[in-house]
Known about the structure:
Elements lengths: L3 H18 L6 H18 L7 H26 L1 H33 L3 H12 L4 H8 L3 H17 L1
Amino acid sequence: MDSFEEVYIKMEPIIRKLIFKCRVYKNFDEFKQVAIIALWRAWQSFDHSKCEFEPYAYWQMRYAILDELKKRNRDSTRLVSTEDEKLNFYIEQAEEKHSVLNMDERIEVLLNHCSQHERGLLYALFIEQKTNKEIALELGLSVEAIKKRRQRLINKLKNK
């Protein structure tokens, strides 16, 4: 029998045709390698007394390629759950965004319960981030008065 290199050179066009016949369009080199391994195994296990080598090798390579295609298809169906996980992640993000909108609505409702002076105090404290002393100077009040107003306002908002 010929050496494996000679058999490979002789069977290489058949390998290419077989890969196309099995409708392999992606990962061509990987499936060519699968076919070459199947060819080598067929070459190792071939018995001249039973049949000719070419048909035997052809069917061994064909079954190896089809088995690899089935394996990859089975693996890809197992990985679909990742897509579900991505979808759940996007849904959670959308819900968080929606809850932020609800937070804005809740803040608006709370602000409707505040007087104009209380809104001004909230704005100065939390938006402009002024100190109690700065606010006291602007309003002409003592620092202790601002602290008391701040505490009353926070308690009022907590209870709403």
